[in-house]
Amino acid sequence: MIQKLIDRIVTKDAPVVVGLDPTMAHVPEWVKQEAFSQYGETLEGAAEAIWQYNKAIVDATYDLIPAVKPQIAMYEQYGIPGLIAFKKTVDYCKEHDLIVIGDVKRGDIGSTSAAYANAHLGKVRIGNNICTPFDEDFATVNPYLGTDGIKPFIDACNDNDKGIFVLVKTSNPSSGEFQDRLIDGNPLYEWVGERVNLWGKDSMDGEYSNVGAVVGATYPEMGSLLRKVMPKAYILVPGYGAQGGKASDLAPYFNADGLGAIVNSSRGIIAAYKSDRYAIFGEQNFADASRQATIDMINDINSAIKNQ
Amino acid sequence: MIQKLIDRIVTKDAPVVVGLDPTMAHVPEWVKQEAFSQYGETLEGAAEAIWQYNKAIVDATYDLIPAVKPQIAMYEQYGIPGLIAFKKTVDYCKEHDLIVIGDVKRGDIGSTSAAYANAHLGKVRIGNNICTPFDEDFATVNPYLGTDGIKPFIDACNDNDKGIFVLVKTSNPSSGEFQDRLIDGNPLYEWVGERVNLWGKDSMDGEYSNVGAVVGATYPEMGSLLRKVMPKAYILVPGYGAQGGKASDLAPYFNADGLGAIVNSSRGIIAAYKSDRYAIFGEQNFADASRQATIDMINDINSAIKNQ
Question: Who's near A186: CB < 8 A, 6+ residues apart?
Fold first, then answer.
């Protein structure tokens, strides 16, 4: 699967992913009102609003980008209707030839991780039928439980041509509380990175592995180190834009081949119409604002890589 | 919320929780066939099967136990229909006056953790309405992202009278890979335990905190140490029974007041009818086997505590 992602990144010359993380606060008032008039101010109404919002943003950006990353928490907070909107979004994006990275950050003991891996990357046998639950292309995974929590995801990658991104160094302010603590002289994130490198050998796909890593844009010196620790792991980089990460900091996340990283922006793209820079588009044309923000982000990242 | 859980534990003299972790392999053939005849060998059919299975087990055990712990992965693997069965199970258990521990192991950066906290323990505002998505009583939470990933859950505990159990030392074989590594002479799980103790001060409810911890039954010497590190944290103990944890090892997880821990069994209860010990009940009476296994487990745990 990582090779499919790389092919699309190269074809579109866009090492970026749009984070489809909708909340009621982001959705334009008129989209909400249309949804509420049909379904009321209910979980169903919220789910319809975020689905229509997503659809418009995907329609306006899919030709520019290789991938999207829906954050399932934003859907889960609207209950079952929200999760139906998540599944509709996954399917709609795949119909538009986008790679879908399910940002689910699952992880548990072996047999339970296997169930999560089936849910998001695999299949389940029901009687004599094989059914496909959510069917994203990639999932993000939490490493706290160690190898036997990760192995079932790698099996699902190999069985179904899928991929994962393991949390290594996250973009949030308190990520260092545990991740930066030194173990035998090296920080925990480096030990996790080394393990990602090992795990990755079991699922190579061309020059890179289906086992990638999450490393926040907000910690570029750690990105630089982790790039060397996991040379075959694609790095999914959250934290660009709204969280404070700058394109000029991102060059070290890439390899000399110009590949090796994909940068996510969520609010900066999907709520672009709310920022001063794109306010001219107006709330009615929020998706056009997202398109322009996507073009600007691609240029910003590409010029930073080329100036490496 | 922790006080409500303690009250039920004391009233029923049962520091145990039944893990409702259904898979197709556990559900008796006749329950599956009834479900498939209605909904086919589909995600809907699987969801109906696990819902009927759960309902029978709850009906047969609810008077004996204070709480249940549905593992959401087992439902998520059956897609949207599976998650509808999860929600029906949560609601049914609450109608039967059971405390529901959503074993969801969520955790993310701050704003995303807030969405998860809303989803499982809180509420969401939609227009002028306040809606309740999943509404478990407790959720399990992953600490890898540090304080800003946990804080939104604690806020949800305080706003809605709920609780969490933070993963400290998990029951699986490779949990030591990161959790046991030494940082300044102490293992990572101890540092996480100390943080749980600190976090817990912000959500006290009687003698204990709404911020509890997960510590596997399979590592009793670590349970003993963590009991001292987090004196006010209730410990949720997975790994008893099928995973190898013995009642005789569990005394150190409890405080001198006889409180402080609640022991989970999943397969050992819900699939009791498949074990030699309870085979006499037969597949038709699987729920009666679960009831007997619950009675035996309560006696086993209680005699171990009393022999402390």
Answer: none
Q: What is the pLDDT of residue B308?
A: 63
Is A142 in CB contact (< 8 Å) with chain B?
A: yes
Q: Cα dist. A91→A47, A68, A102, A103, A215 in Å?
A: 15, 12, 12, 15, 27
Q: Do A159 and A122 meet the contact criterion of CB atoms below 8 Å apart?
A: yes
Residue B224 class from Cβ within 10 Å (0-12 exposed, 13-18 middle, 19+ buried)? Answer: middle
Per-residue pLDDT at B171 exceeds 80: yes
Distance CA B26, CA A225 (A): 46
Angle value at C-alpha A63, between A97 and A78, nearest 5 degrees? 65
Q: Does A167 touch chain B (CB under 8 A)?
A: yes
B24 near A CB under 8 A:
yes
Which tens digits make up the pLDDT trace of A41-58? 999 999 999 999 999 999
Contact: A112, B45; criterion CB under 8 Å: no
What three-state secondary structure class fits A244? coil
Residue with token string 């950066």: B109
- Confirm whether A267 is domain-assigned: yes
A263 is a domain residue: yes
Would you say how long chain B is, in residues? 308
Distance from CA of A193 to the nearest CA of B (A): 12
Q: How many whole angstroms separate alpha carbon B174 and alpha carbon A263?
A: 31
User: Within a domain: residue A149?
Assistant: yes
The band of B242, judged by pLDDT with boundaries at 50, 70 and 90, is confident
Q: How many CB atoms lie within 10 A of CB A244?
A: 13
pLDDT at residue A62 is higher than 70: yes
Q: Is B198 on the interface with A (CB under 8 A)?
A: no
At residue B187, φ and ψ (nearest 5 deg) are -70, 155
Contacts of B24 in chain A (CB under 8 A): 124-126
Residue A138 lies in a domain: yes
At residue A197, the pLDDT reads: 98
Chosen from B32, B42, B111, B169 to mutate, greatest number of chain A CBs within 10 A: B111
Q: Write the pLDDT tens digit of every residue in B174-199.
A: 999 999 999 999 999 999 999 999 99
User: What ipTM was reported for this prediction?
Assistant: 0.97
pLDDT band for position A298 (cuts 50, 70, 90): very high
Which of A4, A12, A88, A105 is an active site residue?
A105
Task: Identify whether the C-beta of residue A254 lies closer than 8 Å to the C-beta of residue A306.
Answer: no
Residue B151 belongs to a domain with what CATH number? 3.20.20.70
d(CA A3, CA A13): 15
Q: Quote the domain boundaries for residue A211.
A: 2-13+63-71+99-306
Domain count of chain A?
1
Q: In chain A, count of helices (H) and strands (E)?
A: 12, 13
Angle at the Cα of B90 from the Cα atoms of B196 and B24, rounded to 5 degrees: 105
Report pTM: 0.97
DSSP state of B143: -
One-letter amino acid at A126 equals I
Going by pLDDT thresholds of 50, 70 and 90, the confidence category of residue B243 is confident
Active site residue A105: yes
**Helix or strand holding residue B9 (H, E):** helix B2-12
Residue of B nearest to A88 (CA): B80
Nearest to A27 by CA among B266, B125, B297: B125
Q: What's the mean pLDDT in B144-157?
A: 97
